UniProtKB/TrEMBL annotation:
This is ATPase AAA. Residues 38-172 form the ATPase dynein-related AAA domain. InterPro entries: ATPase_dyneun-rel_AAA (IPR011704), CbbQ/NirQ/NorQ/GpvN (IPR050764), CbbQ_C (IPR013615), P-loop_NTPase (IPR027417). Residues 185-267 form the CbbQ/NirQ/NorQ C-terminal domain. The lineage of its organism: Bacteria, Pseudomonadati, Pseudomonadota, Betaproteobacteria, Nitrosomonadales. GO terms for molecular function: ATP binding; ATP hydrolysis activity. It holds the Pfam family CbbQ_C. It comes from the Bacteria. Belongs to the CbbQ/NirQ/NorQ/GpvN family. Keywords: ATP-binding, Nucleotide-binding. PANTHER family: DENITRIFICATION REGULATORY PROTEIN NIRQ, MOXR FAMILY PROTEIN.
Amino acid sequence: MNARTLDPAHHLIEKEPYYEAVGDEILLFEAAWRQQIPVLLKGPTGCGKTRFMEHMAWRLKRPLITVSCHDDLTASDLVGRYLVKGGETVWVDGPLTRAVRAGGICYLDEVVEARKDTMVVIHPLADDRRTLPMEKLGLEVEAPPEFCLAISYNPGYQSVLKDLKQSTRQRFVALEFDYPSAELERRIVATESGVSEAVASNLVRFAQMTRNLKGSGLEEGASTRLLVHAGKLIADGVSPVSACKAAVAQAVTDDDDMLKAIQELSSSIF
Ligand code: ADP
């Protein structure tokens, strides 16, 4: 493991991450942070939640520790565990503990993916107690005022198994994220990928068409992230139709009919 990734000091973001505000999310996050209320970011994948967190960590000058949650993620993965190193048993803090100790921002991405016991760990951190129980060490760590817990959740993937429980969600200030307005998205795609405003505008139009297919065979339309990918390929010399196929169509579906439908959309625009 790389020691750099373990030291929260290295998670300080020095250069401003480019972020276009969609509404009053920056103000709301800053207020929630000052008031020591945890934050829940809701919204589909690829619509700027991670970038927003990077931007806020830079603004608030706090280290950012991001954990992508998955269905094997346990409370110990977050809190820490004993490891045998050179014949000795040593305690190694997990990312959540490191963030708490450093007064940083801990961002748990796609939190509903994690195993149920992880929620037990974040609950006392996400209410007035603001403590992290470290069962294996038999102690509780109190979070400093600068510490912030943020989690993300995609309501689009909602299922009985993968729903965020009321007992969890009602501890958070919730910020809703969605695809930006056409004008804003055009600016984001042009800035991030290097394509002209005209090409970016067509990519956005194409994305909006794919988003209309959601529910009729498509789980999720093209996200801003995919448009940035397509834009980067185009800026690198790939034809727009090929770029849309590789970066967007193939990324959102494996279904042959749907692939054809999406390709027809891009051919009609480019
Ligand atoms: P999420 O975390 O919601 O899945 P990301 O934050 O990774 O999505 O966003 C994907 C990409 O889209 C970013 O890397 C960035 O290029 C672009 N992006 C999306 N929204 C914005 C925004 N509001 N400002 C700047 N870039 C954005």
